[in-house]
Specification:
By secondary structure, this protein is of the alpha/beta class. The chain has helices at about 40-55, 60-75, 80-90, 95-115, 160-175, 185-200, 235-240, 245-250, 275-290, 310-320, 340-355, 415-425, 440-450, 510; strands spanning about 1-5, 5-10, 10-15, 20-25, 30-35, 125-130, 140-145, 150-155, 180, 210, 225-230, 250-255, 260-265, 300-305, 360, 385, 405-410, 430-435, 450-460, 475-480, 490, 500-510. The strands form six sheets. A seven-stranded mixed β-sheet has the order 15-16-17-14-13-18-19, sandwiched between helices. It has a five-stranded parallel β-sheet with strand order 10-9-8-11-12, with helices on both faces. A three-stranded mixed β-sheet has the order 1-5-4, with no helix packed on it. β2 (about 5-10) and β3 form a beta hairpin. α2 runs antiparallel to α4 (about 95-115), α3 packs antiparallel against α6 and α9 packs across α10 (about 310-320). The radius of gyration is 24 Å and the shape is globular. The chain starts with a strand and ends with a helix. Bound molecules: NADP nicotinamide-adenine-dinucleotide phosphate. The site of NADP nicotinamide-adenine-dinucleotide phosphate has 26 residues, from α7.
Length: about 525
Amino acid sequence: MTRIESYLNDTWQSGREPMIALVNPATEETLAETSTQGLDFTAALAFARDVGGPSLRALGFEGRSTLLEEMSRLLYEQRERLIEISIANGGNTRGDAKFDIDGATGALTYYSRLGSQLGTGNALWDGESEQLARSPRFHGRHLMVPLRGAAVHVGAFNFPAWGTFEKAAVALLAGVPVVSKPATSSCLLTWEMTRILVESGVLPAGSFQLVAGSAGDLLAGLGGQDTLAFTGSADTAARLRAGAGPVRESTRINIEADSLNAALLGPSVETGTTVWDAFIRAVVSEMTQKAGQKCTAIRRIIVPTSQIDNVQEALCAELAEVKVGNPALEEVRMGPLATADQLEDYRAGVASLAEQARIVFGDPTRVDTLGVPAGKGYFAAPVLLRAENALAAHEVHRREVFGPVATLLPYDGSVAEAVEIVARGGGSLVSSVFATDRDFLSSVLPELAPYNGRILAIDPKVAEVATPHGTVLPSVVHGGPGRAGGGEELGGRRGLSFYMQRSGLTGNRALIDKIV
Ligand code: NAP
């Protein structure tokens, strides 16, 4: 049995019993165990601030860019081994595993390249210098410098690789040491990735620490120079926002929470066109990739009333082809949910959606599986629902069923109704619009923007070349308003500002301009 340890104060540390078991969700076999009971998180935070911060700042942007490049290379070299772990502990197919692991190395590489353009120091200008008084000598300019605290990252179970390293890439480039706490149930992969980095000797002292298990009192000691970046459910986010750090010390907090993302089919998109095909492909892929356990997955499928029967027929035909089972098998397209609790939530969630929408594909109580011991595994069938009155189906706009589940919603083909339905989600990470009518597209995009952190616009020119709806790109902001957490991360250089203090310097222009 593998015993997972936390990496704190640059040493591997094991917590006391009772241990928490990590399982293979396809077979329910126990793979590893971990505990953080009794570990000293106060010392870990102090180590980050006192040792990690200075050692990272000594490198400057240029040195940290090299660090990120090395981290990416080291992890990529072990990609095959990491994919095996992700399949076993995450219930991921090979494709799902690559999505997570390549996302991690891709974000590290992207931020390494960005860092190579930022010079040798630790400070950045934000905007130009402005004259503030009559004299042209007295100017003001905004300086950005790394905060002196620890960047504490709390991640969700569905992305133990990408979720850890997309956050770490940004904080490390900014010059801030990381204390990373992935979700316990899937932390075997994060532990292995951390071991690769630690054993290589690439990590500067105190720059990266891993909490492999429950958070314990980790967040109780956050101060005004620390930051907390959280990804997970809206319920946990609400608890963390009310913590002593954010409330009393003004610890910066960024929340990436759950979201009822939408895919919108524009009016007059004909069946069989490239845009139509891209729409059907996107919905099926978002429902089934990682068994629908993606914060960006499409939950609401908004289509013109005149096309809803055709869309339903096309989606049902595609979903019928999806083979569910042991993700270690090549022919399997969708693996299990991550835990027994997730399966229970899925069943309860589908039941509550089914009070306001009718199930038109799939049975939440049974699923045929390939290559799995009888009665084992946390498998869920893809379920497609349909509501006849989109605005009256309140539960569809409120409840995120974190599994292979989405609901068809009709609209009258107008921009106004489409926007009203999307907005009912209370704020989303991403919505996609698939349309051929340029006027519709150019009117709907700015109207959807207040409710979405990102919008994917598919017209005939980009239908076959665009990145998928669910792919988060390091150069584009990730996060969404309201329900989605109100946070923002990544977005190229924008992401650095969360870990940096912007300070308005006012004084002698000749002196100020020489600082950076
Ligand atoms: P979760 O139950 O909220 O847990 C998220 C993380 O918070 C885990 O690491 C968990 O640790 C930790 N945690 C729970 N209670 C805590 C507390 N009191 N103090 C400190 N840490 C605490 O969410 P999940 O089930 O892992 O993830 C699924 C949810 O995440 C979905 O709703 C999904 O939409 C959302 N998500 C959002 C994004 C995004 O980018 N917006 C990305 C992925 C997922 P333990 O595992 O040790 O309990």
